[in-house]
Amino acid sequence: MDTLTLLLIVVFGTQQAITIGVAAQGELMTEKSGIINIGIEGVMLISAFTAAAANWYFGAPDSPVPKALMMGSASPWGALAVGMATGVLLNFFVAVMDTKLRVDQVISGIGINVFGLGLTYLISANPGLDRHYGFSLDGTPHANQLSSLFSVKGTYLSVGISPLVILLFGLPVLVWAVLKWTKFGLHVRAVGENPKSAEAAGLNVNMVRILATSIGGALLGLGGAYLTVDFAPNFTPDVTNGIGFIALAAVIAGAWNPFYTLVVSLIFGMSVGTYVVINATPGTPLFTFLAVLPYLVTVVALTITAKRLRQPSALGVPYKKE
Known about the structure:
Elements: H1 3-32, H2 40-57, H3 75-99, H4 105-125, H5 127-132, E1 150-153, E2 158-161, H6 165-181, H7 183-193, H8 195-200, H9 205-231, H10 243-253, H11 258-279, H12 287-291, H13 293-305
Antiparallel strand pairs: 1-2
């Protein structure tokens, strides 16, 4: 394996790690408050769709949107914001179900996943439905894309690095600082570890959980939006392809630590990069093995770290004010 191939693996792996790492930091924030959101995949999928639609509507030359509302080359940034808003809305809905209605957190997450898959497949299975509103889901680029910071060109593959890579490495620092040094972070950790004591101290446990989950949703939405706005500027119903579950595994294998979660996200991203780059090289005999490599790495990482994990004490436990 030559130096160029290794460089391509690192660059593509980092690109893939952006969506995993950003979403994982959002889920970490949610789980620190005591709520586990199994529905990451569904949230990211719906956010990817709304972002792709926004990017097309406000950036494509043939969009039916009035010219006064067109964003031109800035449409990807607006689309990312739409994806984040979608994530906030969906995670807020999940948080309300888990706190106010006390729905089983696994069931509510599965419900979001099923809803996301069903919604996107419904639109994709009815071509006239999406085209009626001027948005085509044919798997082709629709509008603008973020400008790469730099790109690496190989014989069979060219990969650019997204400006969002700054978030991949900056978010863990921000999440760590918020959780450790701010009053809000203290409240989040308190309701995730001992909600009864937090309530005795005057905190509204459910409100803190809803707020933390909504903030986490913004990052889930950003991770999903990145897939269709920058990573591959088009939408297909399987665009997430299990990334939500890998992000969930990254939080667990990273022991609910923002920096360890970043490292695990990079490892997962590199495993995907290895598969894509080597598979793009004609004649490779390892295609079958490499196709399952990202998921194999996920299972191995969880197996290795399982006995040394210490999750938030109240994770997954609904709280009822006494």
